[in-house]
Design brief:
Chain lengths: ~180, ~140
């Protein structure tokens, strides 16, 4: 009977505590520990925490970690590395323009100085965030300079001289470099 | 005897704490942003891509006991972002994208702006790799 009473006390206590802690949270959040991110993205971490307007933000403010179960510095659990290759890692991000929509408005202006860089970057398949970060960072970023595989021109020669125009569409076989003598 | 009484007191305190917390969660409410997004699909080349044709958002209140917080990401998914003063203020909120239709999404807020604050609500559809493939926004006062 005594054992039974002890068990009852223990069970009631544990249930009460569990309910209390679970309810105080009113639904669990998934806090992102920036020190985990720092393990692989040290320079980005240092820049964000030390300088600039985003110093008060953490990684989780802009990136949602898609794999919340690993904790590198604490458990040294690298099991997430064995995740299928198609498992995105922090793939969900807000865009710079989400919080700074005025910049997108400015880029609509023909005379805006960054418009050409931004639109050309987008045409080359560079993500909107990478186009912004290309300049707005002090750390190396994954921004690959790309060029077209084939470039063709139309050259027109007249008494006034040569006029060289770049073919906007330069797929090989469709727009070859041409020469016109007038 | 004292030991036994102590056990009773602790148990009663724990149960009382649980009752207080549960009551607090049931009786009090928190502000959320409720979003209704209409998504259609348009054909581009050989592919069909989602097009968010309409976004309707407004403030509501929900019991703290069921207040929505961060949910794991969905791939593909429909995401809601609430931007206030150049800051994302919502808990990560998304539902699986299952094709064209109307999506009702409730986003909990990490920071509660004062009543009457204008916020920007962004609804985005991401593909299975997390790339944003559709987006629409609306402004609302919460």
């Amino acid at each position: 009977m005594k054992m039974y009473a002890r068990f009852l006390y223990l069970a009631a206590g544990m249930v009460s505590l569990s309910f209390t802690f679970a309810t105080i949270g009113f639904g669990f959040g998934h806090p992102c520990d920036p020190s985990n991110c720092r393990e692989c993205h040290a320079r980005v971490y240092e820049e964000f925490t030390a300088t600039g307007a985003h110093a008060n933000l953490t990684c989780g403010n802009c990136h949602q970690n898609s794999d919340l179960n690993y904790s590198v510095p604490i458990s040294f659990d690298f099991s997430w590395l064995h995740a299928p290759a198609d498992t995105p890692h922090s793939a969900i991000s807000v865009r710079c323009a989400d919080c700074h929509p005025d910049v997108l408005d400015e880029l609509q202006n023909e005379s805006e100085v960054h418009r050409r860089f931004y639109t050309n970057s987008r045409e080359l398949g560079i993500s909107p965030n990478a186009a912004c970060i290309a300049c707005h960072t002090h750390t190396d970023v994954d921004f690959r300079r790309m060029r077209r595989a084939y470039v063709s021109y139309n050259v027109r020669c007249s008494r006034a001289g040569y006029v060289v125009r770049w073919n906007e569409s330069d797929d090989l076989g469709i727009n070859r470099t041409g020469f016109e003598n007038t | 005897m004292i030991k036994k009484s102590l056990k009773y007191i602790i148990l009663v305190l724990l149960v009382a704490m649980m009752v207080v917390v549960l009551t607090h969660g049931y009786l009090n409410t928190g502000k959320v942003v409720k979003v209704t997004a209409t998504i259609e699909e348009v054909t581009v080349g050989e592919h069909k891509i989602p097009d968010i044709t309409d976004v309707d958002a407004g403030a509501d209140r929900i019991r703290l006991i069921s207040y929505p917080k961060d949910v794991p990401p969905n791939f593909p998914g429909v995401y809601v972002h609430v931007i206030c003063a150049s800051n994302r203020i919502e808990h990560w909120t998304s539902v699986p994208y299952t094709g064209p239709g109307t999506y009702n999404i409730t986003a909990g807020l990490r920071f509660i702006p004062s009543d009457g604050t204008k916020v920007r609500v962004i609804v985005a559809v991401t593909d299975e790799k997390g790339n944003r493939i559709a987006m629409n926004t609306t402004d609302t006062v919460i």
